[in-house]
Amino acid sequence: MRFLNLFAPVLKGQIIALMYLNMTKILIISIFGLLSFQTSAQLAKFTMSGTIYESGSMETIPNAVIVCTDLNTGASSNAFGFYSITLPAASYKMLCSYVGYDEQAFSVDLTGSIIHDFYLTRSSQLETVVVSAEKKEKISEESRMSTIDIPIDQIKNIPALLGEKDVLKVVQLMPGVQKGSEGSTGFYVRGGGPDQNLIILDDAPVYNVNHLFGFFSLFNGDALKSVELTKGGFPARYGGRLSSVLEMRMKDGNKEELTGEVGVGLISTRFTLEGPVKKGKSSFLISGRRTYIDILLQPLIRAAAEGEGTGGYYFYDFNAKYHHVIDDKNKLYVSSYFGKDRFYVRELAGDGDVSKGAFKWGNATGTLRWNRIHNDKTFSNTSLIFTNYQFGIDFSDEVEDEDYFVKLRYRSGIRDYILKYDLDFIPNPKHYIRLGASSTLHRFKPSAIVIKSSEDYNEENSAEKIYSAESGIYIEDDWSITNKFKVNAGVRLSHYHVLDTGYFRPEPRISMRYMIGKDLSAKASYASMNQYLLLLSNTGAGLPTDLWVPVTKNLRPQHSKQVAGGLAKDLPKLNLMISLEGYYKWMENTVAYRDGASFLQLGEAGSAEPLNWEANVTAGKSWSYGAELFIQRKFGRLTGWIGYTLSYTKMQFDELNFGKEFFARYDRRHDASLVLIYKINDNITLSGTWVYGTGQAISLPLASFNTYGHTPGFGSSSEAQFGDFVNAEDFGEKNGFRMKPYHRMDIGIQFRKQKKTCERTFELGLYNAYSRLNPYYYFIDTYYDENTDEIRTDLKQISLFPIIPSVSWTYKW
């Protein structure tokens, strides 16, 4: 019975999810019936459909453009390379293109529906062909806005800290994205916190994306095929977060030949191997990375401890994927990620005493996907997904002679089981309909502490696991109403159930584009979002000590509304895409720690009481508004982008800052980035980045005074007890102090040598090339000045990274 009682709320949520699925079925049948009737009324129209592949590897290509040059109409491939275009019966010239690949022309006599696959070859030309540029993807023609596609080749060419190519560090260079602290991978989008970013790897959400306490991310660029960031104008298919969606897809694996890549840097070595299991039919991909910081630091640690101690730190990643083509209409994908960080110390005393401690955290994901082409207009993707994040602390202190020991173990984490179904239906070039449903079973383990000692002191907080169910259905249509006016409209219905509490929220979405003139459009969007998961963090740095918890009856779901508008312009002759956007976002039920609360107070070592996170946090509201400029060049000899953001982010909590509004820590008035990649020739590439940002808003003491510590008495106020003499500080307004502005330049150069069967790349880089001492944090230093015979206080700055050189070597075959 206890088992049934535990899962009763979850089963209720799953029943609601099944109701959603039935509603989806009815919706699909209704839409198909309506559109089939419309299609049958339009006689003598046929469909050309198929899949777009990379020649040589048979990797599918997402977001490729297929254009009918005779009618100036076209379509694009979905995330799995499938496309469909319906035209009146006639003979046409078709053109297929994608950034970084040679275009492919094709003449078709469309007297009946046909299947035609495209095989694009990577371009070897440095100069741009102006005529072909007219048929490339155009930002001005898309109905969506606030979406950025980041080419993988550019990510690999951008200089990075210690030579470690990092997707999230590149994301930080985009307009509308604020960086966290120096060197960290945390990012804040349009005023949202780090927990408000939905980060997806092959359909699996990833909850902690940091290695080395936030200095590197866990995504290995060698294993990735595509990276897309959505900051606003969210399509209805995305849900569960308020601020952004970062969607990454792994390579499928080469189906034609065995290829590989090995890279060696200053702190890690990585490898990637892919090839056919059965040529042309199935393929595999494995990719791994392991740092050797622990090996490099061991001699230094031993020397510092005079031979009486050891310690170290390491992390590793491992990606794997299997892709099998069942037949022309069905494909199967199995992908996974495993990663772990471990920081450990061990200290030996001369009398045999031993102290040991370790931090460890890691992620595991798994995705099973089935793609099916139902007919020449309908494509579906069914996914079964698993994701797991765990964090742990282990500590022990043993005294041999006294037979004394103390042992502590702490665990927390979140685990998801997800079932997801998505369907694409393309009845004609004017409509691209997407609909689907998903259901997620969350398992939270906020904290579990075990303390044992030799003094008969044993405490155990086996915090009860919390289960919840999150479900949703959606429908959206990318509709070309006229040649000038295009709309992406949809709605998402989300439901969440935890313990004895349930929430149901409709989320309308709309994005629209109007062509003002050739290659110039005006855009606008509105999106309503809800978030049912909370991240308790008092650092904002994405440390593993941050805790994921569910909403409850007292902590209501976070909710946002965002409106945006702007202009988009293409300059085909210069290969430039330009966008200028303004936005305003309201957020309700934003969560923050109460004053004085922190992770260290959640689950005290002296208490085995269950974790009560609700008593340590408070809810309020926040809002953000600003403007963003983005100029991007994706192909040609010179590529890169310029980004600039002007933004304001404020917060208001009744229980913080005396109820008055204040600037968020990650509020930055100005944020600019310049990224340039220049190919001198086929063998040498120069790259550089420059970033600038207004300093973060922080709280610093304005004054200090001496007083007595006060402990309430057990009766009237006259019985209050006074403790030790203490120094108290007045911090004034919350986040009322600004750090110095942040700016930095990174440069790099790559030397490639192409041989008959392999390619070798040697890269040199400089992080923070002019050695700017950017502030990492400030502290107040109080000292006695012998010259003036006074107690003085100074504000001191700690900087983390001066100029840092890097070198790496890559071998690819």
List the defining traits of the structure above.
22-stranded antiparallel barrel; five-stranded mixed β-sheet; 5 helices; 2 domains; Maltoporin, Chain A
Summary of the model, kept short:
8% of the residues lie in helices and 57% in strands. The protein is mainly β. The relative contact order is 0.12.
Can you give a write-up of this model?
There is one protein chain. By secondary structure, this protein is mainly β. It has two domains: 147-699 and 805-812, Beta Barrel (Maltoporin, Chain A); 700-733, no CATH class. Helices cover 8% and strands 57% of the residues. The protein contains five helices and 49 strands. The strands form ten sheets. It has a 22-stranded antiparallel β-barrel. Strands 9-16-17-12-13 form a five-stranded mixed beta sheet, with no helix packed on it. The termini are far apart. Residues 32-42, 125-135, 600-609 and 711-721 have low confidence and may be disordered.
The CATH class of the largest domain turns out to be Mainly Beta
How large, in whole angstroms, is the Cα Rg? Answer: 28 Å
Biggest sheet features = 22 strands, antiparallel, barrel
User: In angstroms, what separates the terminal alpha carbons?
Assistant: 59 Å
Helix content: under 10%
DSSP summary, beta strand count: 49
Q: What's the rounded overall pLDDT mean? A: 83
Number of helices: 5
Q: What sort of overall outline do the alpha carbons produce when their principal axes are compared?
A: globular
- CATH superfamily of the largest domain, please? TonB-dependent receptor, beta-barrel domain
Number of domains: 2
